[in-house]
Design goal:
With 247 residues, this protein is α/β, with parallel strands linked by helices. The chain is 45% helix and 15% strand. Strands 3-2-1-4-5-6-7 form a seven-stranded parallel sheet, sandwiched between helices. The structure holds NADPH dihydro-nicotinamide-adenine-dinucleotide phosphate (NDP).
């Protein structure tokens, strides 16, 4: 028996980066893992082939797509228990620019995917989790939701919103034994941070107390802990996984 044996997990944005590492880790922990992709079907197929996770296309910013996704997971033949035990809200995008140059479309796209997506997904799994009288919702925030960052007013606002959503939802759902937490990464080596120049990266590494950026697996291990019985008394928390950067 591994620590998540028999559990059904749903991870948004599992086709790349941190989400793909979370899929890999939760499968290794024994869970049956469904994951979404949006615009990278080939990458999603590779993750599914390599991990055994089950890929489903869905845009987390669209209410009807989210409702269809959750129903598809509940009805899927691999979901023998007809449950959703773990939701990881990981899907996220950036559209960085200084505020004077930021368009309304840049603002809306980031808020819709990063924040409304978490609301829609969490709302959709609430019903099955409430009737199960158990569940774990783990939201991937960011340290910039706490510190702020020039050029990211949309992204930082979405990630700060996730922290407030996490605390509120945790309080609403605690009586049903549904635990809701947020993991706030610092700088992780993925496509999202690949645009940083080598010079910027070196300056960044000097400012991180642990002296390096992190690998996606180092976020996945914290998600795995929060999804497990070892975290049975942790709810409404935001755990920073940033090498000490924001402290
Ligand atoms: P990537 O850009 O590598 O991957 C983003 C993932 O989100 C992809 O799987 C993508 O799917 C999916 N996605 C994007 N838009 C949608 C959508 N509308 N509906 C469904 N899925 C969507 O990002 P990271 O792995 O770096 O980031 C993952 C999470 O971690 C994000 O929430 C990010 O904000 C957060 N984070 C990342 C940090 C970092 O340093 N990398 C730091 C702090 C937080 P597809 O490719 O199929 O479109």
């Amino acid at each position: 028996m591994t620590k998540l044996s028999g559990k059904i997990a749903l991870v948004t944005g599992g086709s790349r980066g941190i989400g793909a590492a979370i899929v890999q880790r939760l499968v290794a922990d024994g869970a049956t893992v469904f994951f979404t992709f949006h615009s990278s079907p080939d990458k999603a197929r590779t993750v599914a082939d390599e991990t055994g996770g089950i890929a489903i296309q869905a845009d987390v910013a669209q209410a009807h797509a989210v409702a269809q996704l959750v129903q598809a997971v509940l009805d899927h033949p691999a979901n023998t228990t007809k449950r959703i035990d773990i939701l990881v809200n990981n899907a996220g995008i950036t559209k960085d620019t200084l505020v004077l140059r930021m368009s309304e479309a840049d603002w809306d796209a980031v808020i819709d995917t990063n924040l409304k997506g978490v609301f829609l997904m969490s709302k959709a799994v609430c019903k099955p989790m409430m009737s199960q009288r158990s569940g774990r919702i783990i939201n991937i925030g960011s340290i910039v939701g706490i510190t702020g960052n020039a050029g990211q007013v949309n992204y930082a606002a979405s990630k700060a919103g996730i922290i407030g959503l996490t605390k509120s939802l945790a309080k609403e759902l605690a009586s049903r034994n549904i635990l809701v937490n947020c993991v706030a990464p610092g700088y992780i080596d993925t496509d999202m941070t690949a645009k940083i120049s080598e010079e910027q990266k070196q300056a960044l590494q000097r400012s991180i107390p642990l002296g390096r950026t992190a690998q996606p697996s180092e976020i996945a291990s914290v998600v795995s802990f929060l999804a497990s019985d070892d975290a049975s008394y942790i709810t409404a928390q935001t755990i920073l996984v940033d090498g000490g950067l924001a402290s």
